[in-house]
C-alpha cells in the first residue's frame, strides 16, 4: 500500500492512542450520570405526550377573614358591583363608620354593633344606597329575627344565616347576619340587580 505523503507513523500512532485514552476517560467520567440522563429524558418525553392537568384554583379568601378593620368600601364590593355603582352618573360615595342604615332604630340599640365600614352612595337626584358591615354578638340573629319580623320584614334562616327584607315605598331594606357579622343595606330609589345577594356572596365567600 502506498503511503500518504507527509504522514509520519511515529507521530500518528501515539496521537491516536492519546485520543482514544481521552475519549475513554470522558466516557468513564460520564457513566455515573447515565441513569440520571435517561430518567430526565423519559420524564421529558412523558410530560410532552401527557395532557397536563391545570392546578386547582385557590379559593378566594372570604371577606369575613378581613373583618379586622382593614376593610374599606372598595374591598366590601365585588368587582362587578363596584363597577356598576361607580359607572352610575352622578353617584357620590362617602365612606364612614356610622350606625347601620335601618328604619328599625331599636334594632341597632339592641345589637350594639361595632361598625367596620359604612358606604353611602348618594345620587344627584333623590335617592341612593347605604350599606354597612358590622360585627355583632353570636346571639344577634335570634334577636334580629324577632325584631325584624315584628316590623314587617320577611325573614328566612338557612346555612347559619338570617336574611330579612322589606320594601316600603321606594326603600328596599335588606339584612343578613351570619358568623358574628351584620350586613345591612338600604336602597332608596336605586336598586342594582341582586345587590344584597351579590354582596353577601362576596362577604362570606
Description of the molecule:
It is elongated, with a radius of gyration of 36 Å. It folds into 2 domains: 9-49; 63-204, Protein Transport Mog1p, Chain A (3-Layer(aba) Sandwich), CATH 3.40.1000. With 205 residues, it is an alpha+beta fold. The longest helix has 22 residues, at 9-30. α5 packs antiparallel against α6. 23% of the residues are buried. It has a 7-stranded antiparallel beta sheet, sandwiched between helices. The protein has helices at 9-30, 34-49, 73-76, 79-86, 105-111, 140-150, 195-204; strands at residues 91-96, 114-123, 128-135, 154-158, 161-168, 171-178, 181-188.
In short:
The protein is an alpha+beta fold and 205 residues long.
Main sheet: strands, sense, barrel? 7 strands, antiparallel
- The CATH class of the largest domain turns out to be Alpha Beta
Strand content: 25-35%
Number of domains: 2
Share of helix, binned: 25-40%
Mean pLDDT across the residues is 80
Low-confidence stretches: 50-62
Structural class: alpha+beta
What is the secondary structure topology, with strand pairs?
Layout lengths: L8 H22 L3 H16 L23 H4 L2 H8 L4 E6 L8 H7 L2 E10 L4 E8 L4 H11 L3 E5 L2 E8 L2 E8 L2 E8 L6 H10 L1
Antiparallel strand pairs: 1-2, 2-3, 3-7, 4-5, 5-6, 6-7
Helix pairs in contact: 5-6
